[in-house]
Amino acid sequence: MRNGLDVDLNAESVGPVDVAVVAFEGNRFNGEIVPALQALQKDGTVRILDMTFVRKAGDGTVDLVELADPEVAQAFQAVADIQFDLLSDEDLRAVAEGLAPESSAVVVAWENTWAARLAGAVRESRGEILLFERIPREAVVEAVAALDN
Question: How far apart are CA 20 and CA 88, in angstroms?
């Protein structure tokens, strides 16, 4: 066990896995998102599987910063000491291409452990999810605002 989580992944029991790219202005990683990620892992909502930092300089050069690198290790190691290398260098370079110069991003893959039980039940019943889509935040904000009218 690491971070209070079972580190053994089983293909039959793993929940859905998502990848998020969170961009930041500037090229410094300050770790301010660590408490939120730690809380999500601690309460069993997600399990961080892979995390890498991408930095794009003003001249367009790209730097991939792994968790073992000293500048991020202290802040983020407590969140993602389990690495399954789901993110390839090609994936990360594609992310970097979309970044503005002098910016950075954290790319994180997590298992939605909260959904593993439902995913297992779907598989066991020989069901198939035909559509899974996230509703954009703007649409949710508009729907909530419409309730007030």
Answer: 14
d(CA 57, CA 98) in angstroms, rounded, equals 13
Residue (of 25, 45, 29) closest to 37 by Cα position:
45
CA geometry: angle 19, 100, 78, nearest 5 deg: 40
Q: How far apart are CA 102 and CA 59, in angstroms?
A: 8
The CA distance from 48 to 13, in Å, is 16
The DSSP annotation for 63-85 comes to EEE-TTSHHHHHHHTTT------
Interior CA angle at 81 toward 17 and 43, to 5°?
60
The three-point CA angle 14-46-70 to 5° equals 110
pLDDT in tens, 79-122: 765 567 788 989 999 999 999 999 999 899 998 988 888 888 89
Helix (H), strand (E) at residue 34: helix 34-42
**Which tokens belong to 77?**
């190691």
Strand residues in the chain grouped as ranges (E): 17-25, 47-56, 62-65, 103-111
> pLDDT averaged over the chain?
82
